Amino acid sequence: MTSLRGALVCVAVAAAAVSAMQAASAADRPNIVLMLADDQGWNGLSVEMAPGVPGSRGEIFHTPNLENLAAQGMRFSCAYAPAPVCSPTRISLQTGRSPAALHWTKAAPPERGHMLVEPTLIKAISAEETTIGEVLRKTGYATAHYGKWHISGGGPGQHGYDEHDGDTGNENAYQVTDPNPVDIFGMAKRAEAFMARSQHDGKPFFIQLSWNALHASENALKATLATYEKQLGGANDKRTTTAAITEDLDTGVGMVMEAIDRLGLAGTTYVIYTSDNGAGGGGGGREGGKGRGRPAGLSGGKGSVWEGGIRVPFIVRGPGVAANSWCHVPIVGYDLYPTFCDWAGVKPTALPKSLEGGSIKGLLASGGKGRVARPGEELVFHFPHYQTGNTPHSAIRVGNLKLIKMYEDDSVRLFDLDADIGERDDLAARRPDDAARLRTRLEQYLTDANAQLPTPNPQYDPTAAPVQERGGRGAGTKGDPRKKRRPE
């Protein structure tokens, strides 16, 4: 009997020791909450994204919770989405690879009848890719993905996520209305429940909240719409509905932040807020140096690799991140994969060899100073497609210089972004050596990445109007009874 009692005590002590080790392990590894907005440009918040630059915030938007997040953390003035459209950014975040290397550079169906033929794309994440969800789950994290997945492959459950909303696209945005506009509040509540369960289980957690907003902006709360209709004088006007859904999204962000604080997790949780691409339809593409650019002072928009299409808001709050701090080092969305692994204590030797990003952990710990160690110094943005008035083009940024290559006429543009964030002063003719050097680096990167390029169209008829192919999840029409939507 005594022997049995002693054995039971030993078992209990051992179990307590294991529990204590698990708790310590969880405490050593921070929780991670990634919030990804949809179609929210650099100036899409009431928060400046560059100090003293009025055009880096939106005059019509009201996002007090994101203002608080910025005050509590670090803002990145030179943060880029991996692509100027949705799905390529989303698969890039999951894999830590560039859309060019993944052969997924556009979301909407191709346009046919142009001078060049767009490449055929892979339109589903492969089972061979190792996602950030899979890596973190293997290290003991509880993982969840809520909202818009939009990269097929069977959905998040097939790619490392314990809990998720399924293989979703844009349909939830169009189907879910007041009192839960585009499922913003529902997603926030599911995230809180998941955090509480993970905390109870003693596990660190990774949650990606892929907000459906700013899609289906007309589905904003009726009360919020009424406020902006009165303020801006435009019932059902796109400007009015965008402002309304932006405020509703900010409310959802506030719900998540309040849940983190209420659960006592603020000291062990990193929160990242960013967007999948720039805003608008890309109508300010300024090809050939024409056009005035977008209201933020940035040229271009969604569907272009001018700054307006790829520069996005980016805010981080978490342990060791100085309040109300800034970082002006260029970063890109696929830097998050190695950053999360760095936080989780994953050894570099255990990471996929194909990773192109670098950890920003050092930038956050040093008050925004330093550099990101990537396999290559350059940042490349590849869009060999036609969309919203833009022709196929690619860009490379090295230091403060950015070069854009146009494929129809094989021309280049060169800009000094430190002096000319609006990309209005083309330096290519005045600095031919820099233009040639960056062009060579861009073309070498695309060759090394086995990137797909547009090809000449032997049937091109300049008198015939191009047409967009129908179908494909990238068109963003699944589940939407109105069917016709702007390209994703």
Morphology:
globular
At the fourth level of CATH, the homologous superfamily is Alkaline Phosphatase, subunit A
CATH class identity: Alpha Beta
CATH architecture: 3-Layer(aba) Sandwich
How many DSSP helices? 13
Number of strands: 18
Q: Reading side by side through the largest sheet, how are the strands ordered?
A: 7-6-8-1-9-10-2-11
Distance between the termini: 70 Å
Kindly state the mean pLDDT as a whole number? 90
Structural class: alpha/beta
The largest sheet, given as strand count, sense and whether it forms a barrel, is: 8 strands, mixed
In the predicted model, the low-confidence regions spanning at least 5 consecutive residues are 1-25, 282-295, 472-487
Annotated CATH topology: Alkaline Phosphatase, subunit A
What features would you describe in this structure?
The structure is a single chain. This protein is an alpha/beta fold. The chain has one domain (29-475): Alkaline Phosphatase, subunit A (3-Layer(aba) Sandwich), CATH 3.40.720.10. Helices cover 31% and strands 15% of the residues. The chain has 13 helices and 18 strands. The strands form 5 sheets. It has an 8-stranded mixed beta sheet, sandwiched between helices. Strand 14 (393-398) and strand 15 form a beta hairpin. It is globular and about 60 Å long.
